[in-house]
């Protein structure tokens, strides 16, 4: 069983234990988009036992926002690194 399928299966078990359909777990997993994020949501469900569907979806959106912010930060760091390398090489050529 892959990391993805194990995370989805654990989320299905947690969501169905709350009384929601397994299809909801699949939708939540698809929206989050990473096994670590799915595991975070599963841990939240077991720990907080959200009373409403709104609380569950709100946590999913919060996790997704954090993941998206992290991805944007990494992309920005890579772009900045490339720009810095360009400036360094350009300066090296100017010094010659």
Tell me what the structure shows.
The chain is an all-alpha fold. The chain has one domain. The protein has four helices and no strands. It has helices at about 5-15, 20-30, 35-50, 55-95. It is elongated, with a radius of gyration of 20 Å.
SSE order and pairing:
Elements: H1 3-17, H2 22-32, H3 35-48, H4 53-95
Q: Which tags fit this structure?
A:
mainly alpha
> Could you give a short account of the major beta sheet?
none
Quote the beta fraction.
Answer: under 5%
How many domains? 1
Unreliable stretches = none
The backbone outline, from C-alpha atoms, is elongated
What is the CA-CA span between the terminal residues?
Answer: 57 Å
The radius of gyration computed from the alpha-carbon positions, rounded to a whole number of angstroms, is 20 Å
> How many individual β-strands?
0
Structural class: mainly alpha
Element order: H for helix, E for strand: HHHH
The helical percent reads over 70%
Work out the helix count: 4
Average pLDDT rating = 92
């Amino acid at each position: 069983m892959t990391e993805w399928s194990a995370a989805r299966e654990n989320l299905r078990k947690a969501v169905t234990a709350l009384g929601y359909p397994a299809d909801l777990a699949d939708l939540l997993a698809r929206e989050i988009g990473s096994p670590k994020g799915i595991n975070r949501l599963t841990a939240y469900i077991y720990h907080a036992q959200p009373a409403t569907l709104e609380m569950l979806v709100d946590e999913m959106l919060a996790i997704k926002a954090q993941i998206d912010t992290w991805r944007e930060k990494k992309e920005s760091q890579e772009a900045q690194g490339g720009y810095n390398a360009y400036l360094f090489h350009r300066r090296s050529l100017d010094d010659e």
